Fold:
Amino acid sequence: MFSRGSKAPAIIALVASVLGLIFASNSTLDYAAHLDRRLHNVHCSFIPGASAVPEAEACRAAMYSPYSALLKDQYWGGIPISLFGLGAFCFFAAFSLYLLLNGERTSRRTLAFFALVGTTPLLVSLLMLTISITQLGQVCKTCAGIYISSALLAFGAVAAWLSARMDSTRPTVSFALVPAWLVALCATALAPAVVYAASAPDQRPFITQCGEIKQAKIKGDNPVRVRGSHAVQPTMLFEDPLCPTCKAFHDRLVTENIIEKLDIELVLFPLDNDCNWMLDSALHPGACIVSKAVLCGEGNARQVLEWAYDQQEYLTRAGKAGENTLRSVIKQRWGESLLRCVDDKKTDVRLNNHLHFASENNIPVSTPQMYLGKRRVCDEDTDLGLRFTLAQLSPEVLK
Structure:
């Protein structure tokens, strides 16, 4: 593949390590920026060093997912796994530079070690890629940058070993250096995570500072009940079935099996001025009709809601096309009887009661909103800090 003594494999490994370091740094910086409990732009580009942007749904979804960090119960947001990549790529960059400078004086044992450990980021990347495709349904560009860097690193490391394995003129080194290198790799990979954990701010004083519900019941109506199979925590959710953030939030509750521990009172809060007088224009056209469909689902409300989330992009397009198009979609999936309920004046009154309930409780005109009992969960604690907040306010939900 490469001629004996070629420096190309070491150069490839060095470039790959630097690229991986940049992508892992961007991912870590995004995580760290959110420790101030505010919403920030995130890096989401194949271009190393590209600026953070607000339109980065795939990367934001990956960051909020349960697979993005460890120890989320113990630390707000957890310890991002990109930190381990950050440390590991630092080690591989230094080792690649050593191989490049040392040239033919590098022993075959050294190259064999590098070929072995140089493939570990690729194995981790393949695992994370599989999770992204099968669990998240999308791959963030920053993550893909790390995956590509890992593949290039593995290629460079293995190529360096293959090009020198038959070279008997190379010097030998003590086998004792191998465990020393392993210790150095582990220490370098762990160091950023240890520093991050030690310096992360204590979020516990903030998670109880977002107020409580004032009026506990909807006047003249009842909220939709979504009771989990092992419900232990009364919860109230304000949701819009055509809200992408609500969909992502609901998916996290399902993926982490949290929803089965919640006894949910669902209040429909469509961000659509067709029924919501608190808005001048529709943020999610058609959300009023889909919300009425959820109300009409009664005992099957969760199934209707999850159908709306699963088909959200399609329903959003239908909503923009007009009410008749959206009603046809609902009729096709749920039948004539549910559509009659959607068009019934009584359903308009029910949805209006939900909106009045939100208004009377001064609910922010945004979704989702979550209440554990009467206590409001801060917006920032429904994404990165969800598991930490639940561990503090309702630990039985995570058992």
